[in-house]
Amino acid sequence: MEPALATCRPAPVSRPPALPLLEPAWFAEGNQPVLPLTVVPEAVVPDDPVDPELRQLAAALTGALVEVLSGQRSPLQLERWVEPELLNLVEHLQRARRGQGLRLRSVRVQAPHAEAIEVSAHLTQGKASRAAALRISRRRGQWVATHLAVALQPQVVHQAGWISPVTNSA
Q1: φ, ψ for residue 95, nearest 5 deg
Q2: Can you point out the beta strands (E) in 71-125?
Q3: Where does residue 85 rank: exposed (0-12), middle (13-18), buried (19+ CB within 10 A)?
Q4: Which residues, 6+ apart, have CB-to-CB distance to 88 below 8 Å?
Q5: DSSP secondary-structure letter at 150?
Q6: Is 8 contained in some domain?
Q7: Backbone dihedral angles phi then psi of residue 106, each to the nearest 5 degrees
Q8: 134 located within any domain
């Protein structure tokens, strides 16, 4: 469709008025930036770079963390696979019973580079959805969970670990 042929129609009365998120930018006539709306880039679907064994490790480790949070597993079972700061957070949340009834619904795994994999997890707690993000990095030849961010309550994100932009595999 040609952008010049586009038409606008009023929103239905049942919809609330839109709230501006940013102050509108005002341009002098003729100086308004133009986007190339008629050019559509090709969609490129890259091959999945995550090794299936790493994908399985990420899903298993995420599942084990959820089991610890929900009280079904001892945190001591994860000492080998999790950085101490992250393990302290998980133990604290387990003792505070923040993860009661928590279940793992799905995981997505990606590899930002060869030395790290990142997991985003959809969790459920009763009828509520929860979210978690986990980073697993190669440290001294072994894969270890180095960062966790988990939202077990609305507007509260518990975090542990630090993401290093450069990792050392030695």
Answers
A1: -65, -35
A2: 102-113, 116-125
A3: middle
A4: 160
A5: E
A6: no
A7: -160, 160
A8: yes
| pLDDT values of the chain reduced to their tens digit, one per residue, 170 residues | 576 777 767 766 666 665 555 555 555 565 555 555 555 555 555 555 788 899 999 999 999 999 999 999 999 999 999 999 999 999 999 988 888 899 999 999 998 888 899 999 999 998 999 999 999 999 888 999 999 999 888 888 888 886 555 544 44
Helix (H) or strand (E) holding 130: strand 128-139
CATH number at residue 95: 3.10.450.50
- State the helix-helix crossing angle for 52-69 and 84-95, rounded to 10 degrees: 40
Q: How many domains does the chain fold into?
A: 1
Residues 6+ apart with CB under 8 A from 164: 137, 146
Q: Which two tokens stand for residue 95?
A: 């003792």
What does the DSSP 8-state code read for residue 20? Answer: P
